[in-house]
Amino acid sequence: MTAKIVTISSGKGGVGKTTTVANLAVALASEGKKVVCIDGDIGLRNLDVVMGLENRIVYDIVDIVEGRCKTRQAMIRDKRLPDLFLIPAAQTRDKNAVSPSDMIRLCDELRAEVDWVLIDSPAGIERGFRNAIAPADRVLIVTNPEMSAVRDADRVIGLLEAEEKAAPSLILNRLNPSLVRRGDMLSVEDVYDLLRIEVIGIVPEDENVIMASNKGMPLTLEGKSRAGQAFRNIARRLAGEQVPFLELEAQNLWERLARLGRK
Amino acid sequence: MSFFERLMGRKSAKSAKERLQMVLIHDRTDLTPAILEALKEELLAVIARHVDIDPSTIRVELENEGRSQRLIADIPLRPAARRKS
Fold it and tell me: What is the pairing mode between strands A199-204 and A169-175?
C-alpha cells in the first residue's frame, strides 16, 4: 500500500475541520480502505471525542515522536470500523513537541501500511499548521460561506502557494441553501469567485452534525443525513471518482415543493 | 446596510462579496488603500511632467485574475489640439 496523505486545514477555527476529518475517514474506511487519522492539534485535541474514542487513548503522537511507544501502539482502532485508526494529539504538551520533519517521518512510516492518512490541522497558521501540511500530498481547505472564514481560507491558500504545495481543494461547509436563495449568504459561486480553487465538496448546514458529535458517532456512519451524504461524496471524489454535486438541487426541489404545498 | 440600501432591497451576501473582494486584494498584495492612493499621486505627478492629463479621469486600480492580482492604470490623454486652448 502507498497511502495518500491528506491534510484538512482552514485558517479559522470552528468551521468544521475535525468533523470533516472524522466523516471523510469513516466514509473511506466504510469503502474497505485502511485509514489513519492524525489529530494535529496538540494541546487542544478533539478528534478523539468526535470519533467517540476518547476512552481508549493510552499513547499519543508525542509518545510516538519521543520514542515512548511504537507507532502501532498509539493507533487506536475504531469501535465500528476495523480498518479505521486514530493517532490522538497530546493534550498536555505544547505544540512544539512535534516538528514538521517528525510529521514527515511518521507519515512515511504509515504510507507503507495504509491507504489514507488524514491529518486534522489546528486552526491558525503557526507551528501546528506547518506540521500538518509538511507531509501532505494534498490539502483540503474547509471554509464556511461567511466573511472571516473565507478571508482566512484565502490566507491559508496563499501560504500553500508560497510553499509550492499542490493547489488545495475547497470544502464549503455549513451552506444554508434557503439563506443563499434569499441573498443573505454567499453562494458556492461567490466563494469560488473569491478563492478560485477547485471545489471538492459542498456540505449543507445540518443539525445532525451536532447530534452525531454528541454521540461520538460521525454521521457518515449511519442514516441518510444530507451532510453525511455530502461527506461520502467528497470521499469518493478524493478517491478519484466523478460524483455530481446533487445535494443542493435536492433541497431546492424539496423546499420548492414544500412551499407550493403551503400556498 | 444603510437605510438606502435596505430601501433598494440590497442583500447582505452582495455586500459580503464586494467587501471580501477588496479585503482579499489587499491581503494578497499587502497594499493598503492608503499606499495605493500615494502610488496613484506619484504616478500622476511623473506622467503630468511629460504629457497633458486630466487628473479627474485617471483610474488606478488592482484587479483580480484568478488568484493573481494586477495593477491597472488607465490614463486618458488630452488631445493635442485642445491643449493650446
Answer: parallel
